Automatic annotation (TrEMBL):
Domain of life: Bacteria
Identification of the protein by name: Rhodanese-like domain-containing protein
Pfam families: Rhodanese
Record CDD domains: RHOD
Coiled-coil ranges (or none): none
Database matches in PROSITE patterns: RHODANESE_3
Occurrences of domain Rhodanese (ranges): 18-99
Length: 99
């Protein structure tokens, strides 16, 4: 059973465009992030998550982004196992994000 929710990039962008302050973590690698990020997102590569999860602000919702949705899914499972609540995978990742 999944321990996290999902949201489409379109749904997330709508909420950002409405001015909602959202807690977004980008788990892609440095070279991927260099090509662009969602404004306001925090970058923590997936491989660094076990050492850096304490940098993540505990908010009612936590949105996780990667390139296509696979790594963010693993990050969601991991963060949920640590007790983070409201963890949400951004389906399709940056490949589906329209800036």
């Amino acid at each position: 059973m999944s321990t996290y929710s999902t949201i489409s990039p379109e749904q997330l962008k709508l909420r950002l465009d409405q001015g909602e302050p959202l807690n977004i973590i980008d788990v892609r690698e440095d070279e991927e992030v260099a090509a662009g990020m969602i404004p306001g997102a925090k970058h923590i590569p997936l491989g660094q998550l076990p050492e850096r999860y304490d940098e993540i602000e505990k908010t009612p919702e936590l949105f996780i982004m990667c390139r296509s949705g696979g790594r963010s899914s693993r990050a969601c499972e991991y963060l949920s196992s640590l007790g983070f609540e409201g963890v949400t995978n951004i389906t399709g990742g940056m490949l589906s994000w329209e800036m």
